[in-house]
């Protein structure tokens, strides 16, 4: 009878109905397995926030069960929250060599390297826990050393694909482990969680190798320097740039902190194999003719402080864009970054560079599976139950429809939200309750000290600024003995609005007189009266609603 | 001799190196001709700004020469600044019937209709001015009644294409006036200014009619309500929805203020020809079965206050999205709006609607010419000189390259910036100086009262909030008699940061003591000391830089 009630719980703490902060809990009996621990970059209205991380209250409450965090690959949206989470929950960290290499750099910066138990795994490794075991399976993605994760339980296998694409000609020759997915599928996968990012795109994602062909075409005809901006984590892309450079007798320098870090780590670990003397220090670029130089740089998203943006605005210490430079932006805009990238492209063109970007040539391919690749994964794994993950609702919904088209019963597919609990038995799947989840804001050194009230205030301040009204009052008599003074910031250009500010002061004086007349002397009421009177006056005159901050000083 | 020095001046006041606020001056002898008068929507970092309009100082200085504003079509980025400019410069307004119809609605709202001289023109009309004349030439675009403008001067024709595409099967049957462009080309066009928006796209823009075919496919199989979101100004799109609705026996209701306005104006003027009893009031939709209803709505850009967004969040008074609704987003995201649109799509899916958008079906075509269409225009007009317009620098640059590929000499092509003056004689083109130009911010009722300092403050406030420090000091003795009080907004959640705020107060006290010890008593220096001490302390503790506003009250 006991066995009948056996169940696996699946609880996503992030990554559903959003892009970023991927983190999924698989819980079976005494084991909690955490897959990934990513950050999310803030939305536009999260003013001043640096990054967003998942709320892991549930894990802290159940920390004796947490066996570790198991990583699928080394992208920020899968590893970026780790330093913050480890400070709350020191558990073992499992990942492949490159993934842990990238994580180590991060932990060093946070002073956490010596206190963290890092366990390197490789594809087909199996980690045995108390009641379950965790297996890593080779996939392809836009970063090397990516894996899917299979959790073996007595009820069956829970398969999490991680982020993946299918690449029959990957740069490192390491093709996805079709055989193992098929083997699991044959044995029976109880439930699959699969990447939904590109479900809206028909067909197949092109092989990473096609980008190398474009590079070769460009490199063969360029007469000046070649500057390539791409994601620091895209090791295969970088390897292809190194190969094209070597073929055409060019030296390669690297710019941008994250690019320098990744190239160092990936070279040390053997994931990048530059030819002898191909890589040079950025300080040495002027010793070679322009047509013998390639610079690999950060800034493919137009980030204003990135190396490429600084080159474009002549703020880079080592590289200034000159006529004849060929700049390749080897990336797609992440939604929201279109305008930033466009700004950098315009600046580069203005400086006389040629600029090649996705609209003009095949200088980028996605790292995620399109529809036909997703179908292959479904057909290999043949899961009994299916949970689409890694996407906004539109993607999850369409991934569900894709599975149905492949013959799956809609009752066997569940679209989840962060914090929801799904319970899976041998022959059933159902939602059952929720756990605490949500977004924790990191702002400077503060983790979680900025909440919705602070953000609401920042938004209000950003729209119409603030008026501070100060008045000093004598405690005994209640008489105003200094002020009211009004100081504004971000509201109007004061010199051109002297009349307005003068009248505003009269409005406050009138409000204070009214308080006196009505014998209102508690501060809260006085402040409210000042605020109301000013708000009405200012809105009428300007149709704006600045924050109004009345301060009463008592002596 | 005098004639040798004859020249036409071309001065763009907006629309170059930006998307929006299109406005171009063509000046010949005693005539200033203004083409279009558009607004720009604010960039993300223009906090609190409603719209951006061009700086027309040059026109005001030369107002006796300004013969009028001549409109190419009725889109906001070409007409939206008119009410603000007319308040500074009351000149005649020329446009085709629909363009003026849309302008009238705008002027009514601003109370300007009775004081404005509106002159309706039609294609091939010629307006004779003192030394030049202005001709209107039929084009196609994503709004009906669009025209190019040819300025005839003794030196030759200056041709401004306006926004255009080539559509051999336009909905109203009115094909672009190829013959007139060819005729002008044969006579000799001195200079052409041409739309560069889609210069990065190879091939041709599809005909508007192809969208109608997609509508028919969708309408023929939909079982519930059909809700189509599109630009209110896209009359042809709306006409095609009306036609598909009529064909499949559906009634059409309209939602959203701008959609209601445009449909009313366009129907009145004969640009929309709905079948008998096809259009119904939105209040009547519940009298018909769901599969007999179409709703045309605003909100195709995901604007949070638009009708579609309100339907998606159940805040719309008349329409709530239900299971079985089919929503068509018949538009492309304008760069910067991707996330807003995605949010609405997710909400619609969550409510059980089917949603069809550009990624999934051909429910939109562009209104701008792609490369092959631009080539046709160049080949018809055969201008001696060429100025690419309507685009960011990347577009202008690539449009220049396109013209060179067609055989034009690069010296005959000039890429301009807003405010620059180009002088053209019979056989020369050169830049010669600049005029005042720039962006004027509209914020509520204020036009130009928010400048860069206010925006900088708003940005600062948005990032880390503000700390106001108030202290009351006795004038005679310089003694602190109340405070320091510190009030923060948008900085930290105060209840959880009591220690920090307490220590901050001590820092201010120490700074005040130091002032006393050093006999510093002028306010500016005292404020600077408070500010510096607090800034250093807060940055060390939080890595944040809130605005610090010290206020000293004197009694």
From TrEMBL, chains A, B:
Gene Ontology biological-process annotations: rRNA processing
Gene Ontology terms for molecular function: 5'-3' RNA exonuclease activity; RNA binding; RNA endonuclease activity; zinc ion binding
Cofactors (names): Ca(2+); Zn(2+)
Major subcellular location class: cytoplasm
GO CC terms of this entry: cytoplasm
Binding, Zn(2+) 1: 73, 75, 77, 141, 163
Residue numbers annotated as active site: 195 (proton donor), 368 (proton acceptor)
Binding residues annotated for substrate, in chain numbering: 232-234, 364-368
Subcellular location: Cytoplasm
Keywords: Calcium, Cytoplasm, Endonuclease, Exonuclease, Hydrolase, Metal-binding, Nuclease, RNA-binding, rRNA processing, Zinc
Transmembrane segments: none
Keyword field contains Isomerase: no
Protein EC: 3.1.-.-
Pfam families: Lactamase_B (PF00753), RMMBL (PF07521), RNase_J_b_CASP (PF22505), RNase_J_C (PF17770)
SUPFAM superfamilies per UniProt: Metallo-hydrolase/oxidoreductase
Binding site for Zn(2+) 2: 78, 390
Cofactor note: Binds 1 Ca(2+) cation per subunit. Seen in 1 crystal structure, it is not clear if it is physiologically important. Binds 2 Zn(2+) ions per subunit. It is not clear if Zn(2+) or Mg(2+) is physiologically important.
SMART domains for this protein: Lactamase_B
General function of this protein: An RNase that has 5'-3' exonuclease and possibly endonuclease activity. Involved in maturation of rRNA and in some organisms also mRNA maturation and/or decay.
Family annotation (NCBIfam families): MG423
Name of the protein in question: Ribonuclease J
Organism: Clostridium frigidicarnis
